């Protein structure tokens, strides 16, 4: 057997072991992360009347999460790099679970605003921390595919979370003397605390510490990841100051802003859009039926995400694998406004969801082509910070336009424009990103 065959066999074996160990656990954590971030979209169906929220006030409550989230994102990711993923991810899970469960007891809109800000502070650093953590464990040749498997949790959180949230709202109303939306916040917040305790004992910081790998497997993985890290450091940015000044980081933040603008607009307002079918098409659905309908675009998006990320790894192409889905979302979302039935509208929105979710896992390959070490921790966090500022803008602007116009058309036109900007921006970066990747491979 040749050295190349031996190395290929070792990679297949080690990657499989690491993936089975980390991806399901991290995927479950991300599932809970996104559920606790966006379940306010379903709570709104009954919470708004209880707390006296207008559409604009609800959009503000949804978006305030991102104030604390954005302020603490970069410091949190640098802390993860310094103190270790195991400790920091466990801390994040426990604190956000406590705040998410506390939202069950808000007495008024002001308290809701405060807790949404605190939830953002508690969650800050989780997603970019996981993206950084995956660069410690998976070689570049398989990273997009495995990132895609991890990120299935994102559409799955809505595909499964929406029906669950709808069922709780409809059938658990009055449990423990609480309104259904309060029960939902409580039931969906506690699991994050439990998973945080488990993370402290289950996760491993680096390959050299992985006693669940055989000694030769541990040595091979540690050497492989160290070699990739050295190659990136030789050609890219590894100092915090340099990465934060790099125009490519800021441009990728703009790309991520456009893609996630579509994601958050759908996540926070799709239940409202479906409820609006009653007026638009003279039909109505129960809260549970609303949840099941909302789940469809996210479920289809999850399947498409897996195949698209595998295709990107197989071909080695990255930029067009981000640009094409973004442009698909940009074109499809305005079309949904002019469909003449609920079925046709949801079919087009499903196409938009495919565009959003296919772009995301491939996108996160791009920063690692020119960032390394502490610079990667800061740069990835900054990209995530810039992109997730859409999480404040999308709900607030969509809610404001919904109040101002009485329908969702204007808000969805904005979604289309933002995704168009994302697609065009990543294409404009194509040459610089390809050059960085080529230099890294040579090194």
From TrEMBL:
InterPro entries in alphabetical order: MFS, MFS_dom, MFS_trans_sf
Q: Which GO terms describe its cellular component?
A: plasma membrane
Record-linked PROSITE patterns: MFS
Q: Which Gene3D superfamilies does this UniProt record tie to the protein?
A: MFS general substrate transporter like domains
What membrane topology term does the record carry?
Multi-pass membrane protein
Any GO molecular function: transmembrane transporter activity
Q: Which CDD domains match?
A: MFS_ExuT_GudP_like
The record, for SUPFAM superfamilies, names: MFS general substrate transporter
Where does it reside? Cell membrane
Location of the Major facilitator superfamily (MFS) profile domain: 22-434
Main localization is: membrane
Q: Where is the signal peptide?
A: none
Question: Where exactly are the transmembrane stretches of this chain?
Answer: 18-36, 56-76, 88-107, 113-136, 148-171, 183-203, 249-270, 290-308, 320-339, 345-366, 378-398, 410-429
Q: Per its database record, what is this protein's job?
A: Component of the tartrate utilization system and may allow entry of tartrate and tartrate dehydrogenase.
Name of the protein: Putative tartrate transporter
Organism field: Klenkia soli
Q: Which taxonomic lineage is given here? A: Bacteria, Bacillati, Actinomycetota, Actinomycetes, Geodermatophilales
């Amino acid at each position: 057997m040749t050295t190349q065959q031996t190395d290929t066999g070792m990679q297949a074996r080690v990657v499989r072991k690491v993936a089975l160990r980390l991806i399901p656990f991290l995927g479950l954590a991300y599932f809970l992360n996104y559920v606790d971030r966006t379940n306010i979209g379903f709570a709104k169906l009954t919470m708004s009347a209880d707390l006296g929220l207008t559409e604009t006030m609800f959009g503000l409550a949804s978006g305030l999460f991102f104030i604390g989230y954005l302020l603490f994102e970069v410091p949190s990711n640098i802390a993860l790099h310094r103190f270790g993923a195991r400790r920091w991810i466990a801390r994040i899970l426990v604190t956000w679970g406590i705040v998410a469960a506390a939202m069950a007891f808000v007495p008024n809109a002001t308290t809701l605003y405060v807790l949404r800000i605190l939830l953002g502070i508690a969650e800050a650093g989780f997603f970019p921390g996981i993206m950084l953590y995956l660069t410690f464990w998976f070689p570049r040749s398989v990273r997009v595919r495995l990132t895609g498997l991890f990120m299935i949790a994102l559409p799955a959180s809505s595909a499964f979370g929406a029906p669950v949230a709808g069922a709780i709202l409809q059938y658990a109303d009055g449990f423990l003397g609480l309104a259904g939306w309060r029960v939902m916040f409580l039931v969906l917040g506690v699991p994050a605390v439990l998973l945080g305790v488990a993370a402290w004992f289950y996760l491993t910081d680096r390959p050299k510490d992985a006693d669940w790998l055989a000694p030769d497997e541990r040595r091979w993985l540690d050497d492989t990841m160290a070699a990739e890290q050295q190659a990136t450091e030789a050609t890219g940015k590894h100092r915090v100051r340099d990465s934060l000044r790099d125009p490519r980081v800021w441009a990728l933040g703009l790309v991520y802003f456009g893609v996630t603008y579509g994601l958050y607009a759908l996540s926070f307002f799709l239940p409202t859009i479906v409820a609006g079918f009653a007026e638009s098409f003279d039909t109505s659905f129960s809260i549970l039926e609303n949840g099941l309908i909302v789940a469809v675009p996210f479920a289809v998006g999850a399947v498409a995400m897996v195949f698209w990320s595998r295709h990107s790894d197989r071909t080695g192409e990255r930029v067009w694998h981000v640009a094409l889905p973004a442009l698909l979302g940009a074109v499809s979302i305005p079309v949904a406004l002019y469909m003449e039935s609920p079925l046709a509208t949801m079919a087009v929105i499903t196409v938009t969801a495919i565009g959003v979710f296919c772009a995301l896992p491939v996108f996160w390959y791009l920063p690692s082509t020119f960032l390394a070490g502490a610079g990667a921790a800061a740069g990835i966090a900054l990209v995530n910070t810039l992109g997730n500022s859409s999480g404040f803008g999308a709900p607030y602007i969509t809610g404001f336009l919904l109040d101002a116009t009485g329908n969702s058309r204007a808000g969805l036109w904005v979604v289309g424009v933002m995704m168009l900007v994302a697609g065009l921006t990543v294409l404009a970066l194509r040459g610089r990103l390809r050059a960085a990747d080529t230099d890294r491979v040579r090194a």
